[in-house]
Amino acid sequence: MTALELSADRVSVGQVFLRTCAAEWTRLWTVKATWWFLAAAAAIMIGFGAIAGFEAGGDPTPGASAWEAAHFTGFPAQFAFLALVLTAVTSDYATGGIIPTLQWTPRRTVLFFARTVVTVGTATLAGVLLAVGSALAAFTAAGQALELPLGDGVDTLATVAFVFGAGTGLAAGLGFVLRNTAGGLVAVFLLILLLPLILPQFGYDWLTTVADLLPGSRSIFLLTGEPNDRGFTTMSSVITMLTWAVTLLLTGWLRLKRDDANH
Amino acid sequence: MIQVRGLTKRYGEVLAVDELSFEVEAGKVTGFLGPNGAGKSTTMRMMLGLDRPSAGEVLVNGRPFAAYSEPLREVGALLDPGSVHPGRTGRSHLRVAAQTIGLPMSRVEEVIEQVGIEGAARRRIKGYSLGMRQRLGIAAALLGDPRVLLFDEPINGLDLDGVRWIRELLRGLADEGRTVLVSSHLMSEMQQTADRLVVIGRGRLIANATTEEILRGLGRRLVRVRSPQSGKLLERLAERGIVVERLADHELQVENLAAGELGEFAYQQGIPLHHLADAEQSLEQAFIELTDDSVEYHGRHAEAARKTTEVAP
Q1: Rg (CA), chain B
Q2: Which of A119-133, B89-103, B215-229 shows the lowest per-residue confidence on average (mean pLDDT)?
Q3: Per-domain residue ranges of chain A
Q4: ipTM
Q5: pLDDT tens profile A26-52
């Protein structure tokens, strides 16, 4: 082995990945947008959780669980996380920062996985922590009117982790594919919110079927249990969301891997 | 060393870089010159793996750039100083770079001091002038103490002190044995800084020679002469098949003849001379002549092409 090869190969791929993750972590937390999106998600989940708790305290239902607050506040709060991840992926293209990024990490697959793991992982973990905060806020505000059963808590946190993880994975994939923040945000809102709500309103079966296949319909079902008349199951919803996330991430990886840096 | 081999880049119908081959040697400052749209930036982007070549390859110290696990230790580059997240501070920007190769924060502080942006490092980049962004980009390029450095128009936006600083920096880096490639549209700047020049036009290699060779018009000698009998002198020279160009009423430019030879010839012909000097072409003149057929957007070339710089024989 020549000296040149030694110089080139002295660091393992695993080390390169960990260093790239550290760089991505710094990238994520050294821009204000990340903090604003987190603050918005915290305000929604904890604030609305407390409000739900007050209401429950005024009109107690025997056996009601404070974890329900995390389910219902998680739906609007997920948009803050979707925007956080999308912005983290696309801001490099908007600012031209992808030029130094790819100079420093020319192994694009490494960059793809590091950026995806750090942004999606952060959003998912923060979502889970805020889900705990939302339930605690509701429980505290309700006085003795709500319960906080451990079993419900595990189910709730697993559901929130999956919905936030798959949803932000989808957003990251869209970001890598579109390379455009505005376009990505529009696409995310259409897929997660608008089309699942609007398409069934037209009254055509085929449009309802299309809506059923959208990730937003399934995230609503997993978080709220609605709609309960279209034959959705937890398994079919998990598969639908994973299919969307994996397909978009794969497409995004191919675009990053094959295309010019920012053309 | 950088080896460019048959490098080609096609954007649809447009051929941006056309089978370009050259080498950039270590220990020298190599200028990369070409008119706008010649393909300089595209070539540099392909060197760094940012754009995928349609054909050919670039090897940096024997390997493709993307093959290096610690690329910042091998190649430092400044392409576009505006290509940074404006919301991040200068120090954070460099910290991200340092983390990709496991460098400590102390190294970040060293390069901040080296490029002279200590006062601005904690501010967000959106408040930086173009010159400060250039310095930040140069700091990132120097961070890993690399053996190869690429700079795309590093002088842009710098004040006179900054220009002097970058000249010394480039010279110092090359003297340490590093490979330094600098693109610039400032031909006069390259004349002062570069040891070698790679000139391209319409994506093709036009010249690859030392700065001195290009300044000599790639071998063509020119002599300027003033005489009250310039018409007679022109006639006599033309009779002998010597190429002569009239520059002014009494001033001629003679090709491929030494000043001494021309002086003796005029003496033999009984033609008085008031001025006789070897005319050294400026790099700008050489550049314009070299790239004249390769310019994408023509301006006032005819006028500029007549300018030459005289030096004492």
Answers
A1: 23
A2: B215-229
A3: 14-258
A4: 0.90
A5: 999 999 999 999 999 999 999 999 999
Q: Which of A4, A11, A96 sits opposite B69 (nearest CB)?
A: A11
Half-sphere exposure at residue B196, Cβ-oriented, CA atoms within 13 angstroms: 17
Q: Is B157 on the interface with A (CB under 8 A)?
A: no
The encoded tokens of residue B237 equal 């020279």
Give CA–CA dist A81/A127, Å, rounded.
Answer: 8
Distance in angstroms (rounded) separating the CA atoms of residues A17 and A134: 34
What the block records as the tokens of B256 is: 């491929």
What ranges in B15-64 are assigned the alpha helix state H?
Answer: 40-47
Please compute Rg for chain A using Cα positions: 21
Residue spans in chain B of domains classed CATH 3.40.50.300: 2-215
Q: What is the value of pTM for the model shown? A: 0.85
Using CA atoms, how far apart are residues B34 and B46, in angstroms rounded to an integer? 17
Looking at beta carbons, which residues of chain B come within 8 Å of A10? Answer: 69-70
Query: Which chain A residues are within 8 Å of B103, Cβ to Cβ?
Result: none
**DSSP per-residue string spanning B248-312:** ETTEEEEES--HHHHHHHHHHHT---SEEEEEEPPHHHHHHHHHGGG-SS--SHHHHHT--EE--
CATH architecture under which domain B2-215 falls: 3-Layer(aba) Sandwich (3.40)
Measured between alpha carbons, how far is B80 from A100 in angstroms, rounded to an integer? Answer: 9
DSSP B176-232: TT-EEEEE-S-HHHHHHH-SEEEEEETTEEEEEEEHHHHHTTTT--EEEEE-TTHHH
Distance from CA of A40 to the nearest CA of B (A): 19
Label residue B291 by pLDDT band (50, 70, 90).
low
B21: phi > 0 → left, psi -120 to 50 → alpha, else beta; which?
beta
Minimum mean pLDDT among A60-64, B278-282, B304-308: which range? B304-308
For B174-215, the pLDDT digits (tens) are 999 999 999 987 777 788 889 999 988 888 998 899 988 877
Report residue A59 as tokens: 């009109």
Residue B53 binned pLDDT confidence (cut-offs 50, 70, 90) = very high
Chain A residues near residue B50 by CB distance under 8 angstroms: 99, 102-103, 260-262
Report the residue of chain B nearest A257, measured CA to CA.
B52
Q: Which of A:92-111 have CB within 8 Å of B?
A: 92, 95-100, 102-108
Q: Inter-chain contact B83–A95, Cβ cutoff 8 Å?
A: yes
Among candidate residues A189, A195, A188, the one with its CA nearest the CA of residue A210:
A195
